[in-house]
Amino acid sequence: MKKQDDLSGKTIAILAADGFEESELLDPKKAIEDAGGKAVVVSMEKGEITAYGEGTSGENVAVDQLLGEVSSSEFHGLVLPGGLHNPDTLRAEPDAVSFVRSFFKEGKPVAAICHGPWLLVEVGVLEGRTLTSFPSIQTDIKNAGGIWVDEEVHCDEGLVTSRKPGDLKAFCAKALEEFAEGVHEEQTV
Predict the structure, then answer these.
(1) Which of 76, 85, 115, 184 does the annotation list as catalytic?
(2) What domains appear along the chain, each with residue ranges and CATH number?
(3) Whether 115 is catalytic
């Protein structure tokens, strides 16, 4: 582990709901923990959330904290996994939209992969920002004022984005770097 990726003493939220892409939650969670940080799964209900992909249910992941009982002030950064159902569910939840928006207001790093940026469309933080995502949501990103690029990983002032599970290695590496750097004044909306 490089010094710039040391997350000792940092707590990173992973906001997810049922239907998340399994690797897009588990790989960043492991990377955060391997870098000395604490990864906290935040969701709308107690218990477990279930991954979904390739037509079947996947692994269950324990929910550490409830969305309505946490504040962005408790965390140093945020991960938004993809999966088709996960971000679609979260973008319809006012508490989720408010929670994500608060990370941008505080200038904290946010990492979103695959369909995860769909939630950022709802949050209203993409105007003039450059990012990538799963290609099928690029029109939504452009309609929200974002500039969409087809890249393995893209970082725009603390906002880290990637397209798909195949990009996870680059996504996790860049996310760790941004989380380690901390607050990005340019991220503030």
Answers:
(1) 115
(2) 3-182 (3.40.50.880)
(3) yes
